[in-house]
Amino acid sequence: MERGDSVAMVVALIIFAGILVFSLAASEPDGLLNASVPHPAAEGWVFQADSAPLFSDTYVRLAEGSALSGEPLPAVPPPAEPVESGAANTTSVDTGNATVEMPEYDDDILVDLIANTSIPLTMLSVQNVYALYYWDEAGVSDAGSGLADMATGVLERVKPLEISPEREGTRSAFVAALESYASAGNLLREASLLNKTEVDTAFENITVGTDHLREAIDGISDRAPEIPQEVSGIGELAPRLPSASLFRNALPLRQRYTFDDRTGANMVSLIIESARRTGSYQLLGGDHDIATAEPGRMFLLVAVQVTNIGHKGESRTYSIKTPGLGSFTLHYYDATYSPLTVTSSTSYGAPYRTVTLSRYETTEGYLIYDVPASLNVSDACISVNLGDQGSPVWALGKTMQ
């Protein structure tokens, strides 16, 4: 799904959630206090990272048989004795002339479940779409788990219900919505590195789920959805700050950072020189294999230079060991990435390696990161953990003046 399509989908979900909320405004105006929500499609804004847990209490209350308002939901009856296909439980009603067997259905329970979960499901869907839009892999996993858990839990309550023929279409639409949401959530929960196929599949499942949920809500048009208190929390949007703004003292590219080696006998120079994007690179030596990024992803190559500036003090130690590969972390908004381990030289040059340098020796190499193709290099940073010698940060979009 293209970015323009995902933005349109976010806006549609927000409008849908707004319709649900304001459908209750006339009957419960107090429930809409502080419900003003900034436009979600504004550039640089996303839901708070911890908004999924806001609905954890909602799910617990539903699982325990309580509505969002605190009133008990009608209990789901225990499984009945086997009956003939198409039959339902019955209740005897005395009409005065004869006793008529009237079927007992769980329509009220179905209506309550749809009314109590439609808004949380929609808001969790919006959160997932935002995380997918920004390829926020950590946020996607958390948001996906929240959506999958809620959809699966509600689905377990809906399927055993005995529903009247008039409401069966509504139940079918609701079940289809929950199954689509659960599929999207489970896919994202298990994804460690997003690729275009997973993103497109999750978008499609959320879209299908929302269409079915709208159909289910139309089937209970006589009952307005409930507004959970948690909506006031998830409705607050927080700015999504680029990593460069989080590290305000970040060094520009090619700015030298000096520190002592672990013995204190030598001074070391560390420079992050440049960053470049590529969809593939060739491994030199052997079969000259080509490493190609998966659809929706790319490789970010960051050039590093380390120099043993020279000896100081009275120690007889004259060599230093360069920082390890795991010391370098790429930051992009809330996500962090570790460099790939590449053992052979590439078509772009040698990969960065940990080596021993004598006095005045220099080593150069590329750190290679597997990142989303949507990553904007200007908003990314590289930090280096040097232990007690500090943790310098370079902004990849900043250059020396």
Keywords:
single chain, 401 residues, alpha+beta, Immunoglobulin-like, 5-stranded mixed β-sheet, 4-stranded antiparallel β-sheet, 8 helices, 17 strands, 33% helix, DUF4352 domain-containing protein
3D structure, described in words:
- The chain has 401 residues and is of the alpha+beta class.
- The protein has two domains: 3-78 and 105-240, no CATH class; 244-399, Immunoglobulin-like, CATH 2.60.40.1240.
- It contains eight helices and 17 strands.
- A five-stranded mixed beta sheet has the order 5-17-16-12-13. A four-stranded antiparallel beta sheet has the order 6-7-10-15, with no helix packed on it. A two-stranded antiparallel ribbon has the order 1-4.
- β6 and β7 form a beta hairpin.
- The model is unreliable at 24-87 and 226-239 (pLDDT under 50).
Task: Give average pLDDT, whole number.
Answer: 75
What is the number of strand segments? Answer: 17
The major β-sheet equals:
5 strands, mixed
Catalogue the unreliable spans: 24-87, 226-239
Overall 3D form: elongated
Task: Going across the biggest sheet, name each strand in turn.
Answer: 5-17-16-12-13
Q: Would you tell me the structural class of the helices and strands?
A: alpha+beta
Q: First CA to last CA: what distance?
A: 40 Å
Element-by-element helix/strand order = HEHEEHHHHHEHEEEEEEEEEEEEE
Q: Using the CA coordinates, give the radius of gyration.
A: 29 Å
Summed up, the domain count is 2
- Roughly what fraction of the amino acids lie in strands? 15-25%
Instruction: Indicate the percent of residues in helices.
Output: 25-40%
**Please, how many helices?**
8
